[in-house]
Amino acid sequence: MEKIILKVMFIAGIIFILYGILVFSLIGVQRVFNYFYLATGGLFVAMALLWPKISSKIGLLPSRIIMAAFFAIITFFLIVEIQIITFGNSKPDKDADYVILLGSQMWNSGPSMDYQARIEAAYEYLIDNPKTKLIATGARGRNEPCSEAQGAADYLIRKGIDRNRIIIEDNSYSTLENITNAKQLILKESKDPVDCKVVIVSATYHLYRAAYIAKKLGFKDISVKGSNGLFALLPQYYTREFFGMIKEWLL
């Protein structure tokens, strides 16, 4: 049984290393998390090759404890990921008071692929629910031609959405700030966020954490509408969200 587990671990490690190289080719090496799959793959390969020698040196009981801990971590990871994936792909409620669109990268040529997918998802909801207002969130980051909120608003207006249905929130740099500032804008409209029906629009992998934050901030009636960007990067982003949720739970 142990030999089979080690073979699976070795194969998984090779796949992770190859995927890590793909991540580098698509989004570069600037961010620390971009090294995750490469590092994890190397760890899996090393563990598969060296474990027989390690286990013989440390003894049967310690080796079983280490292996059990390893599988417990993997199981916990899979349980959290199933929740993230399932929730992110759920359907939004109809006739929301507000859509909160979470920002993403703006390029000189327009929204990034990921952001454009989010904006299109928001557009679909606004078309199907003509009484819903949209809160576009996101400040202007480095190397962005305009704020993410303004970029989304311009995109939607060009597609025919009435500008009076769009509220711009362009002072936020994180998901927490996006939703906190959106809440303040709802209060300025003399509405209680607790009583409002809200749909959060973002990438599918991001929605579980976003809804969790929104509930901590007092929103009660929340549903979500997700979008998918570049398919090849979904494993990278879903894995990153696992650690994002761990951070939220710990804080």
Query: Roughly what fraction of the amino acids lie in strands?
Result: 5-15%
- Sheet with the most strands: spatial strand order: 5-4-1-6-7
CATH architecture identity of the largest domain = 3-Layer(aba) Sandwich
Structural class: alpha/beta
Look at the structure and give the CATH class of the largest domain. Alpha Beta
Distance between the termini: 39 Å
Low-confidence stretches: none
Largest sheet: 5 strands, parallel
Q: If you average the pLDDT, what whole number results?
A: 94
Quaternary structure annotation:
single chain
- How many helices? The count is 8
User: CATH superfamily assignment of the largest domain?
Assistant: HUPs
Q: H/E element string?
A: HHHEEEHEHEHEHEH
Radius of gyration: 22 Å
How many distinct folded domains?
2
CATH domain fold name of the largest domain: Rossmann fold
C-alpha geometry: elongated
Give short descriptive properties of this protein.
single chain; 251 residues; alpha/beta; Rossmann fold; 2 domains; two-stranded antiparallel ribbon; 8 helices; elongated
Could you walk me through the main structural features you see in this protein, from its secondary elements to its overall organization?
This protein has 251 residues and is α/β, with parallel strands linked by helices. The chain folds into two domains: 2-88, no CATH class; 98-250, HUPs (Rossmann fold, 3-Layer(aba) Sandwich), CATH 3.40.50.620. It contains eight helices and seven strands; from the N terminus they run αααβββαβαβαβαβα. It has helices at residues 2-27, 36-58, 60-88, 113-128, 148-158, 175-188, 207-216, 234-250, and strands at residues 98-101, 106-107, 110-111, 133-137, 166-169, 197-203, 221-227. Helix 2 packs antiparallel against helix 3. The protein is elongated.
